[in-house]
Design goal:
The chain is built from 3 helices and 4 strands. Strand 1 and strand 2 form a beta hairpin.
Length: about 120
């Protein structure tokens, strides 16, 4: 894949540092958002830079740089090309069915994450 975009969402409760990668899977394109990262995660990224299986995309950020969250990585898939480094992370119940078509369950890529 390639780096699609990256940036910083500084608001409390937001993603903090983000990297979005773009991949071709068969005849389809998929975008992967990695959020709540540390500042160094985007330091040497460039749009169009190659991302290969096994590459380190980023590292978990501390609360002061990741939107105020306990350390973790937000991983999200999108079948819709994002216009920036941001994607909706939460939707209303009324938007859920459409959102699942555009933003599939990340366990399809990551595998089972919890029991």
């Amino acid at each position: 894949g390639v780096v699609h975009s990256f940036g910083y969402n500084e608001a409390a409760g937001d993603y903090g540092h983000v990297v979005v990668t773009e991949h071709v899977v068969g005849a389809h394109r998929v975008w992967m958002l990695f959020g709540h990262l540390d500042a160094s995660s985007a330091a040497f990224k460039r749009v169009g830079g190659k991302v290969r299986r096994g590459d380190r995309v980023g590292a978990m950020g501390d609360k002061h740089e990741n939107g105020g969250w306990p350390a973790h990585v937000h991983f999200q898939l999108s079948l819709v090309r994002p216009s920036t480094h941001d994607m909706p992370g939460v939707v209303s119940l009324a938007q859920r069915a459409k959102a699942l078509l555009e933003y599939p369950d990340p366990r399809l890529v990551a595998g089972p994450l919890y029991d």
